[in-house]
């Protein structure tokens, strides 16, 4: 099975977790510059606040961009070969094409009015410059905000230096009432109050506070780190320690310190204030390329003087010192460090000669987790495991990278990629899976057994991506490898399955049917229910297309029983679509609609699985056209086209299915005429996936208002959006809404954003007031 995704219309920038201090002039200037320039790069030293500033401006301007504001963090990415795929994934594009080459990404964006924020470009500067230049040339409605420690060096680029926050100059007359308009002082006071609520700026401490801010050159990260010490130190003590350290650093010079030295020395000072155990943990968690959870930290960082039982307390100490930050995700917590702090910790890990040991622990842990995830995927926990994969993708990527860097671990790397097989598909990262498999296949250290498995999976990917030239080459190699080094654990079933998929793509359905039967009958496949379900799906679909409807129905119902017995929904959603198609071909349109709608509902449970969603839209369009419901049919065709255009795939690879779409289109042309058909399809393309699903399920409803000032901004809320709006009116947070509706917090946030956009509001308070006005007070 293959999966795709569709971008959310409003983008992926979340709410700020801490107050945004100062930068009024920079925000205004940057916003104006963005209005006249298509590429603006914010440059400045690490910790100066580039990311916070760019996110603030992007958030304020999001309503100016029809297709949303999208954020891409490149800090965790080391392999430039994955740059384009990383950008595509951040846009919500789950690709089934051969890859996301720059030209194809530019083609997708060519008609979009979108703002793309690319953060932390410095370590991939040349690759970022090539990518951004190509996207801007190919997409006239695209604008880019980038952050880097140096410019990208492109024609037309506007460089925006980000300066430190304002501080009182030496000798300025100061008092508690006269310095809060200095941004650095205001930031210090706000962050100090966060750790000590009773902290106040007074005439007694104002000189020390301003001196601290001045010594730190107004660098936001440095100020935040220093302010966190107010939990245990007075400001005078804080200043004394800073002055001692800087005196040693500068040799007594009173000249202004270089900012990068200031930040480095402040981090070093923070390091010195940590206990030996905290220093050890800081260094070891720096191995994580991005965020991590506690079980991972516990497993990977234990050893030597750091006892497993102490890790929680030591990690809590790092959180309290703001070295590590905490983020909530669906009832659990994740940890991460700012990139500057992570780099410092990695340097300390190298000094301790522990890099290789900790990297191997990291690889082994996530290798084991992948095995557990694969074993538990076919269960009622699919959404939980898919969320795990998305959150730990950077760690899994690093584990694969580590494996392929060591000749002795190449086979283990292939196994890791294979164990994550279904996750690459479900999260839209099939090009990355092929990237890793290709890399493993190039290694001279790969064994014959691992090579056979990697070739089979590569061929599978090529079939899904419709790269039939590569399929033929790889299947030839597979057949030769199978003859020479038959894998008893495989028994040849995967080769037969891949050959069947290739036959399906080429329209050779009789051969595909025969090969699928061989794969299904192999003893070795029966122990893996996911592969069994994949084969059953293809068998049922081939038989349905060929007209063997009784056999297709029987296979489909057997697959549904298997899924239900395990609480599984992913393969069930695909098979329900297939059974819907089978019912339609059997002349049972009502049953076909019922089954297709159920497939949509299940797909929505897994974050609106876009590939099955698009296929459902197609089938509903065919059914509606045959029933004379031309408007609905054309709308569904448009909604499907939006998803297909982002996926590079079409209908489970069977060529004959396109015939039904062509017949549907011809029917609609005859019934509606060219102009009306084009307009209605365009309306369908303009719907979000959520709106199209709501229409397909009969959930759409339009709220009316007697208020003149809202009459022009009210949109059709889906049933789910109406539920979310009611919960917002009850005062629930996004996390609480997610728990109430049994959805992810990210999905809840997306619903709230869509509600704000549809109603033209900017705050939850406005939503709550609107709900009360429309329906009366909401019961809590």
TrEMBL record:
InterPro entries: AAA_22, HTH_77, P-loop_NTPase, Sig_transdc_resp-reg_C-effctor, TPR-like_helical_dom_sf, Tscrpt_reg_LuxR_C, WH-like_DNA-bd_sf. It holds the Pfam family GerE. SUPFAM superfamilies: C-terminal effector domain of the bipartite response regulators, P-loop containing nucleoside triphosphate hydrolases, TPR-like. Residues 710-775 form the HTH luxR-type domain. This is LuxR family transcriptional regulator.
């Amino acid at each position: 099975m293959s999966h795709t995704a569709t971008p959310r219309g409003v983008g992926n920038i979340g709410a700020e977790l801490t107050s945004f201090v100062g930068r009024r002039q920079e925000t205004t200037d940057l916003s104006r510059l963005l209005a006249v320039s298509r590429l603006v790069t914010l440059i400045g030293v690490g910790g100066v606040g580039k990311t916070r500033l760019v996110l603030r401006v992007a958030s304020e301007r999001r309503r100016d961009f029809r297709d949303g504001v999208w954020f891409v963090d490149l800090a965790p990415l080391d392999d430039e070969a994955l740059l384009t795929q990383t950008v595509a994934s951040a846009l919500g594009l789950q690709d089934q094409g051969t890859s996301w080459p720059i030209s194809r990404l530019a083609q997708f964006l060519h008609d979009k009015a979108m703002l793309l924020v690319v953060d932390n470009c410095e370590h991939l500067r040349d690759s970022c410059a090539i990518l951004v230049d190509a996207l801007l040339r190919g997409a006239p409605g695209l604008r880019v905000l980038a952050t880097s420690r140096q410019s990208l060096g492109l024609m037309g680029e506007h460089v925006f230096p980000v300066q430190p926050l304002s501080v009182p100059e030496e000798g300025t007359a100061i008092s508690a009432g006269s310095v809060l308009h200095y941004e650095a002082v205001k930031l210090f006071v706000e962050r100090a109050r966060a750790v000590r609520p009773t902290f106040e700026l007074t005439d007694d401490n104002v000189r020390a506070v301003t001196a601290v801010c001045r010594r730190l050159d107004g660098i936001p990260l440095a100020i935040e780190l220093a302010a966190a010490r107010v939990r245990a130190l007075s400001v005078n003590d804080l200043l004394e320690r800073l002055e001692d350290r800087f005196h040693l650093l500068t040799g007594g010079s009173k000249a202004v310190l270089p900012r990068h030295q200031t930040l480095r020395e402040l981090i070093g000072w923070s390091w010195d204030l940590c206990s030996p155990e905290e220093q050890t943990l800081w260094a070891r968690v720096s191995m994580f390329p991005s965020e991590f959870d506690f079980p991972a930290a516990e497993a990977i960082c234990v050893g030597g003087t750091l006892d497993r039982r102490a890790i929680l307390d030591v990690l809590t100490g790092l959180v309290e010192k703001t070295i590590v930050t905490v983020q909530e995700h669906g009832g659990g917590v994740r940890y991460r460090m700012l990139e500057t702090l992570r780099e410092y910790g990695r340097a300390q890990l190298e000094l301790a000669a522990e890099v290789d040991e900790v990297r191997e622990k990291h690889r082994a842990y996530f290798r084991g987790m992948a095995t557990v995830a694969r074993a538990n995927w076919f269960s009622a926990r699919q959404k939980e495991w898919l969320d795990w994969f998305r959150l730990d993708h950077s760690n899994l990527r690093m584990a694969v990278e580590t494996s392929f860097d060591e000749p002795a671990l190449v086979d283990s790397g292939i196994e890791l990629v294979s164990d994550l097989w279904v996750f690459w598909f479900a999260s839209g990262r099939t090009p990355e899976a092929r990237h890793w498999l290709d890399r493993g296949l190039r290694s001279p250290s790969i064994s014959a057994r691992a090579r056979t498995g990697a070739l089979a999976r590569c061929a599978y990917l090529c079939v899904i991506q419709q790269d039939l030239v590569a399929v033929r080459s790889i299947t030839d190699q597979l057949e030769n490898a199978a003859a020479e080094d038959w894998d008893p654990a495989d028994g040849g079933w995967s080769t037969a399955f891949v050959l069947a998929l290739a036959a399906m793509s080429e329209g050779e359905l009789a051969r595909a049917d025969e090969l699928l039967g061989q794969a299904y009958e192999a003893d070795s496949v029966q122990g893996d229910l996911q592969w069994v379900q994949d084969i059953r799906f293809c068998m049922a679909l081939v038989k349905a297309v060929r007209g063997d409807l009784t056999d297709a129905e029987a296979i489909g119902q057997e697959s549904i029983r298997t899924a239900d017995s395990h609480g599984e929904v992913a393969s069930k959603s695909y098979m329900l679509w297939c059974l819907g198609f089978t019912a339609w071909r059997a002349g049972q349109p009502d049953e076909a609609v019922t089954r297709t709608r159920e497939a949509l509902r299940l797909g929505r449970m897994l974050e609106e699985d876009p590939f099955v969603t698009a296929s459902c839209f197609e089938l509903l369009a065919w059914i509606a056209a045959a029933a004379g419901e031309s408007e609905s049919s054309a709308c569904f065709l448009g909604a499907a086209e939006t998803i297909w255009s982002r996926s590079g795939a079409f209908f489970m690879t069977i060529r004959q299915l396109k015939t039904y779409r062509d017949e549907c289109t011809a029917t609609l042309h005859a019934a509606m005429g060219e102009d009306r058909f084009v307009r209605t399809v365009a309306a369908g393309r303009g719907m979000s996936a959520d709106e199209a699903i709501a229409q397909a399920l009969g959930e759409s409803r339009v709220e009316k208002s007697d208020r003149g000032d809202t009459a022009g901004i009210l949109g059709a809320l889906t049933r789910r959006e109406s539920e979310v709006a009611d919960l917002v009116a009850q005062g629930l947070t996004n996390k609480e809404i997610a728990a109430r509706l049994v959805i992810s917090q990210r999905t809840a946030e997306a619903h709230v954003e869509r509600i704000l956009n549809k109603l033209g509001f900017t705050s939850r308070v406005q939503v709550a007031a609107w709900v009360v006005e429309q329906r009366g007070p909401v019961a809590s």
